[in-house]
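Memo to structure team: turn this sequence into structure tokens by end of day. - J.P.
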Amino acid sequence: MTKKKRKKKKIKRKIKKAKNLKAEKKRLEIQKNNLGEEKVIIKKIKKQPTEKKQYGVNQYVVYPKHGVGKILSVEKTVIAEIETNCYRVFIPRDKLTLTVPVNQQSNLRLTSSVNQINKCVSILKTKPKIKRTMWSRRAQEYEQKINSGKIYELAEVVKDLSKTSNTIADQSYSERQLFEKAYDRLQSEFEVVLQIPQADVKKKMDKALGRNQNLEE
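Reply from structure team:
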């Protein structure tokens, strides 16, 4: 075999080897992508809602966007052609009955403990934090806190928007609407947890806020 033929054969081997490496690399990429797709599917399945808690009939719970409610019953209903167990929750403040699927636990929470209520009273006693931003932005933040379902955030809104008898005239209509919404939500949970009359809850909250008891609501 001549030197020229040997060189030509060697070049062919290199080209073949390069093609094999390229094909192997492509095969591995396809395999990796397939594995990635499988992982996504597995992850999605794991994120499906499950029944983490069970609430009983006549038990009080909190629905973030409506406040304190009472479970009237646990019933089976058909949603999107699937039979599902649901709670029927009555919201006294809004005179509204909600149907909440049992496997959507993020929409419900238990009412707070007495210790958490006492912590809220401590929050109400602190000095209001008023940001120097536009009211529209602050109003949006307050609305998000009210609908979060978190009692400490609710107490913060009540504290920040509370006005004493000396400054009540300076409160705008929208401020007053948000304050009353947050105040009523907090008051209703105080009533259920502390099991005391509405008038006594109001006195307790107003005293913590330093509000004039004779202030017209």
